[in-house]
Amino acid sequence: MGMHPSDTLSQRSLSSSRLPWKAKVADIIENGSWSFPQVPLLNQQLWSRINFQPNLSREHSVDWVPNSSGQFTISSAWEHLRARKPINVLHRLLWHNIHIPRHSFVLWLAAQGRLRTMDRMHYLNGEDTTCRLCARVPETHDHLFFMCRYSLQVWKFIQAKAHTRWPNLPWNSLVEWTSRRYQDTKSTNNKIGALIFAATIYYIWQERNKRIFQQLTQPANTVGEAIFQVIRDKLMCSNGISMADGTRAIWNIPWSTMPLWDDGQHH
Ligand SMILES: [Zn+2]
């Protein structure tokens, strides 16, 4: 079994089952059938997921869930533990002083794998869960940000336009990398990096939703351009933000947003 009961149940409700903490699957099999412990309320929720009979011919084995092969390795354990950390450093990325709230909110959910992607919509059993952006593979957080070739195009567009580079990493590691790389949000360039990351996630999620709920489809470059513009607008209206010449040139921000010739007369 790939799922350990302790993933789902609290320690307290597990102890009320009176099963030993290290109970094996064999402990809940009686005469070739499941003999589930009586845990009030949570019982149904957990056991309704098991829709097969116990296989007595198969030996009891322990699967290490964080590794797709089921084999425990130090590196997979490290990755597994690392994957839980980004949330702690992520807050600077999300809530710096020129953040865009709706972007930060979607990134916050995405970083925790909590957007309602197709793989998480359990009730859609039997329905099409193919990624609507590329129409090639099942939709997951990992795929959507940024293994999907559509998302990758958006990502490449904005990176080229903003003169930045992100490494090619799985989603969790990418969140961690970005959180660490841009954590000092006193720097304008780091704020911009944080804005790009959040906006790109937000716009890809929006494009995905438009395709599903409104049957609207935009090319990757249009989405990339929208990301660029929303960040430029943000920088334009963030008074007093210090910006190097090179950064101004990239984002096409004039030195003063107040017209220098404005002496109150019409031209
Ligand atoms: Zn895709």
Could you name the key traits of this structure?
267 residues, mainly alpha, 2 domains, two-stranded antiparallel sheet, 2 strands, 1% strand, binds zinc ion, Reverse transcriptase zinc-binding domain-containing protein, RVT-Znf
Strand order of the largest sheet: 1-2
Q: Bound small molecules, which ones?
A: zinc ion
Structural class: mainly alpha
Residue stretches low in confidence (pLDDT < 50, at least 5 long) are 1-8, 262-267
Strand content: under 5%
**Shape type:** elongated
Distance between the termini: 77 Å
Radius of gyration, rounded?
24 Å
User: How many discrete domains?
Assistant: 2
E-strand count: 2
Helix and strand element order:
HHEEHHHHHHHHHH
Q: What share of residues is helical?
A: 40-55%
